[in-house]
Every structure is written in structure tokens, then in C-alpha cells.
Amino acid sequence: MPGADCRETRSACPYCGTGCGVLLRPDGAGGLAVRGDPDHPANRGRLCSKGLALGETLGLEGRLLAPQVNGQETDWDSALDLVAARFRQAVDRHGPDSVGFYLSGQMLTEDYYVANKLIKGFLGSANIDTNSRLCMASTVAGHKRAFGTDTVPGTYDDLDQADLIVLAGSNLAWCHPVLYQRILAAREKRGTRLVVIDPRRTASCDQADMHLKLRAGSDVALFNRLLTALYEGGALDAEYLQHVEGLGGALESAFASDASVTGLSDSEIAAFCRLWMGTEKVVTIFSQGVNQSTSGTDKVNAILNCHLATGRIGKPGCGPFSVTGQPNAMGGREVGGLANMLACHMDLENRSHRAAVQEFWGAPAMPDRPGLKAVDLFRAAGDGRLKVLWIIHTNPAVTMPEADAVRAAIKACDFTVVSDITAATDTARLADVLLPAAAWAEKEGTVTNSDRTISRQRAVLPPPGQARADWDILADAGRRMGWSAAFDYQSPAQIFREHAALSGLAGSFGLDFDISGLSRISDSDYESLGPLRWPVSRNRQGGRFFADGQFFHPDGKARMLPVRWRPPASGPDRRYPFRLNTGRIRDQWHTMTRTGRAARLSGHLAEPFADIHPEDAQRLGVQPADLLRLSSPSGQAILRARITSDVQPGDLFVPIHWTGETAPSARVDTLVAAAVDPVSGQPESKAAVVAAERWQPA
Ligand code: SF4
């Protein structure tokens, strides 16, 4: 194993979608020594602060060690018999749509695969969704509309080779720090220019040549203006456009668009367009600022339109590039672990795809229409349509929009199962059955990062108490439900082989996700599997897509979409005059169940806060370190005020990490309305409306 000493185990960081390789060595005191894997193509030895602190997050305090039913410890047989019986009863009495799974982009691909197979193929329900719906669903929808499949065209190597990198709605410096370091290295080496498009001044702006501080939600108008500038400047690629349909409609919409809604000056927009047009190698990275919007899918397509029209896609140093928030959001997409997808990028609403998957699985049932996406899934739990729900490794009682309503919905559900590493989450407290799951360093499987690189995650510590791997728990439940043969899995390698073989069907339908070259991988080769980028098939190996102009729509062509700017679902008014933006900070991860254990990570920003512009602070009589009460139609939160011109007047920024456990008054997702993108179903987490006032404890 080059680059590692013989006591080290090669694995993958469990946080962001960069997918850094790590080398792990037990430190003899129950923890791990962690360093970056110099041979992993994503990070080449680099790690960010969160990755470096991984070894400090593994203590057993608070770990769930045994199954619980109604708060009482029990054994696995009793717990899983009950789970199996309640799922079967619900399906028998109320039909398959009465059950659902809510998963996490932090699950491993093998875990996701078994969950998707169990609910779609055997319970017959498509009600399987994931916190990835809150992360990148708009990108999935935008990719499918443009390319015919959910394909990330480029690779991380493009970041090293680009001459211009545009960060749209992405604070890469804090949210994907190792990718940002790659960009800084490219700046150093080849003078790569950097443009940041964000309503807020973030750490990513520190090195930027240009910061376009546009109004929240106006990205479509900006990229439509870029498209018209490219047309007027003669920068369209006529040869590449032979592989693209829809130029006329996209241009018509773009010319009808009004760039003034961005709030940017004409000269700022012109400078951006000139830079983009005058640079051959352009990568546009986009993330939650684009995705988490009621027009998220249109934003994605507005970006893709510009790259398709100029042929800046699929070539070294070129392309639109979605970066995922979670370590295995991509793996979840690959197995079809979303309510509107089938396995291996096949289509739930395509009769041939459905029949092929059903036959492959030997499945008794297969839904023929999409299930409930995240927001609707919890609404159905709240109004009695969904009777039985299984939540795995995620905490929707604090992370979903309108979190108070979601909490009430979980309470109202007849029967809720939660699999997690701890009982100390807001969601776990609501469970009828709690199942102890193995944690990151205790389980085996694979994850896929943002550039389609599959990495092995390896166990270096034994699961404590009775904790088990998720695939094992799900397969055991499937067998107890009566499907012994279909869920007779003995190892993650066996599941991976099945997943890889199934992907061959996608390949036979001419789709992108094909890892059938790994369908006969031996246990020992799976054990030693190094990072590799899909596709891995007889015909194709890794690399970029679309340089050849071959797309996955039936006619082989891409689509440019006519997209028009729409404002966010709610606009500020007299009652709720502020625009609320939510996001991550550098050193915490999600609801801090792991990063909250590392003291040095709390040293960066130790408590929840709300960024407010000095003009607004003065108007409200708010001094530095005062408390602010934010309220919206769906909830309220109390946070420390940070007065800063990083946010625009009328805007607020609040981090997402503090929860009912760590700061009961700071549950920001209670404030966010559950308005969703009509195509992707992704909630608008970056443009809620709230009232703000100075608050003093009574
Ligand atoms: Fe982990 Fe992301 Fe940091 Fe890499 S950049 S070490 S994947 S959190």
C-alpha cells in the first residue's frame, strides 16, 4: 500500500462531498490517529480542520448500545420482529404507500442499495427519500433535463486545469476546503482567475478576483444575461451546438430576462461576461446557494446552458461542476435512493427500466410512479397517510424546514423506527424503536464523491455494544418480512457485486452509470479496492463525459432549457422584513453529533449567531453580542448578533448546526418555510423571510 505505513488503514472522510482519502491508525487509547492519504486523487494528502479532528470525535459517550422499544432496552430479535411486523401490517392494511424510509447522504452505498431494494422492490413503495433532497436534488433534476441522465461531466482534475473558476452559491473555502485549496494551488501555478457569485461575502471571497454580490435567488437572471452576452459576442460554439437542442428557446428566454433583478451594476455584469467569454477553460462550481431554492432546477439549467452553448464541457479545465454537500450523496443517487429515481440512474416511470430491475431483483412489487419527496413525506406522516416510517442516520426533527411541524409529524406517525449511533438526537427521542448502528470507523463499504470517484470506507474499530452495520440491519429486517433469499447478504462485498451487476442493465439501456466491470470483484479485491472513478465497464473507464457530444437523451443530444427568473417563494414585507440565509460554518458538520465532540473544532465559532448588517443593527438598536430574536410564520430562534457588512442590508445569515440538543433556542430550521422547487422538490433554505428584534431575557 504505497503512501501508508503497514499499521495504517486506508478509508474516506465522512463529511463533505470532496471525498478525501484518510489513513487511520488506532492510537491505543480508543481513538484514531488520522492523516490525509497522499495517494487519494481527491486530496493528495490534504485534509481540512474537520478531517484532521476525526480521531477526536469517536468517543463512546452517548452511543446507543442496544436496541430499544418504547425506551426500554431489548434484543435484536424482539426489535426487528416488531419492525418487520409493523411494516408488513401497514402494507397489508393500508397499501404500500403507507410506509416510508428517510435516509441520509452519509450512509454507505451498500446500505443505501439494500434500503432501496427493500422498499421499492419488496414493500412496493417509492416513499424513500433522503436528506440529500435538501442538498442536491435540483442538480439531479437539472442534469436529467439537460443531459438525459444525472451525470457530473467533469473531474477534480479540471480544477487544476481551468483558467477561470466561478463559484456560484458555494462557500467552497469553508464547505469543501480541500477543493478550495486545489483552486488556490491552481491560482499559484497558472494564475487561475476566481469569481464568487454570492449575496454574502464569504471566506471564499478572500482570494477572489471578483465578487458578484447578487440578490438572493437571482442567479437565473445573471446566467441568462451571460448567455445573451455570449451570443452577442459571437462566442457560441456552432460545431458543438450540433449536439444540442433548444438553443433558440433558451436564447429567447434569456433575452426576455431582466438582469437588473440581480441588483448588480451593468459594469459588474459586463466585466463578468467579458471574463467568461474571453476565457477558454471555465469551470462553474455550484452548490447549495443554487440548489436550495424554489427555482433551483432552473438555476442549474441556466448554468448548464452557458457551458453547452460554448462547448465548455467535458474538456480538460472546462465544465459545470456540482459539488455535493455530503460524503455519499452521489452513492445514494447511484442506487436510486430517492423517491423519483430507480436503481442505477434508471427511470422509475420507464416501463422497460422498471421491468428489468424487477426481474433482476426477483421482486414481487415495483411502484410505477414516484413516491413522496422529503417535505411531502413528513406532511404525509403528519396527516395520517404515512403510517410507518424508518429514519436512518439523520435528524429531520431539526434539519427539515418547518422543523416544528416535522417534529409533530414524526410524533403523529403510528410507528417510527430510528437507526442511529446515538439516542441523543431530537429525532431519536421520538422513535418507537431505536436501533444501534455502527459508526463511521466501524463499518465497511463504499462512498462516491462529487467527481464520481468511488472510495472504500474501512472499519478500524469494533462496533460497541450490539451496534450493527446498516446493510445488516436492513437485510435482517427484509428476511423477517419474508424475503429470505433476496436479502441473504453476508457482506458488503456481496451487495457491491449485485449493485455493479445491476448497473450493467443501465449500461445496456445506454445510460451513464455503469460499473459492471466490478460485478465479479472478489472479496479480497473489494477489500483492497483503491479509489476509482465510474464508469467502470467494458467500454468506458472513468474520465470525463460529453467531450464527444454524446448525451443520454434518446436522440443522443443535450438540451438547453428556456429558463426565466422567478423570485423566491416569499418576499420580505412589513411583518417579516428580513431575508434569511442559512448555511454551514467551517468547523462543524450538520447537527454536530460528531464534530461537537472535538474541542478544537468548537474554538472556531463557539455558539450560534446571526449575521446582521450594521445599518439594520443600528435601526434595531442592536449592539455587538446582543441577542436577536428571529421569528417567522413557522417558528422562532434566539441567537447572538454579529454585526458585519458581509451580509447585505435586509439580509441575515445563520448557521444550521445548533439543534435542540446543543442550543434549544437556536433551531433555525423552525424558521424556514417548506416551499420547494416544483421540479426537484428541494426546499428553499436560503431565502426565508423573518422578523428580527433585539431580545433580552426576562
Ligand atoms: Fe473531509 Fe471534506 Fe475536509 Fe476533505 S474537505 S477532509 S472530505 S470535510
UniProtKB/TrEMBL annotation:
Transmembrane segments: none
Swiss-Prot/TrEMBL cofactor(s): [4Fe-4S] cluster; Mo-bis(molybdopterin guanine dinucleotide)
UniProtKB keywords: 4Fe-4S, Iron, Iron-sulfur, Metal-binding, Molybdenum, Nitrate assimilation, Oxidoreductase
Chain ranges of the 4Fe-4S Mo/W bis-MGD-type domain: 6-62
Family membership: Belongs to the prokaryotic molybdopterin-containing oxidoreductase family. NasA/NapA/NarB subfamily.
Name used for this protein in its record: Nitrate reductase
Organism: Leisingera aquaemixtae
Lineage summary: Bacteria, Pseudomonadati, Pseudomonadota, Alphaproteobacteria, Rhodobacterales
